[in-house]
Amino acid sequence: MEINIENKRALITCSSRGIGKDIAIALAKENVSVCLISRTENELKDLCDYIKDNGGKAIYHVMDLFINDKEKLNELKNKIKNEFGSIDIIINNANIIVSPKKLSLIDENDWYKTIDINLNFFFNLFRLFIEDMKNNKWGRIIHLISLTNYMNYSNAAYSTVKGALEYLNRNIVYDYSKFGINSNIITQGILDNEKLKKHFSKENIEKFLNNIPSRRLGKVSDITDLVIFLCSEKASYINGVNIDVSGGLSIVGMHY
What we know:
This protein is an alpha/beta fold.
């Protein structure tokens, strides 16, 4: 299948590790120029060098996602303007759970930090690049969210923010689709990656498997292949949806 996204320019948040890193590599393999954002400079530099060594185009920008720093944001825009011209694709991979607690127990700072990282930072990026997308009559926005939003335990701050993001996605579609800009959400299930093995025991992973109707963990390629497809013209009529990639886990939930 012809993808035809070469020479597009993508910005990927939280891209120094995990699925953000995997998405950046996958896009670079399709000859998309990638801008990597995270707060860990060593990992960003290593990934940037890896992409370049393999024939891709990449730059990186170090910044905290919970700080509304207009100077840093302007530095980012100027760096992208100088290197790429602009951005065609935003991968909103800020997907951080600060304090998984009941609403009455959440620390105030954790509440605001969750909102800043998972919602406000995208708002700032969107405003930086939306006019260029409009002028170019083309844009792709993809939000990555966690299945945690649907799990059976208290996680008030994260669930609230991700619910807000779904309505934000709808508003983007309503206001900007006429400019050739598509915005979609991917809800990712439990992926078989280093992060899973680092944080969960084999026993816990086995319990996850017993809950997943498809009886397997997600592969990284389940997500990266979908991202590539949604960025392509083959998916130009897919707009405003939340695509569940969880092997059916969102239907049954997690039971221990």
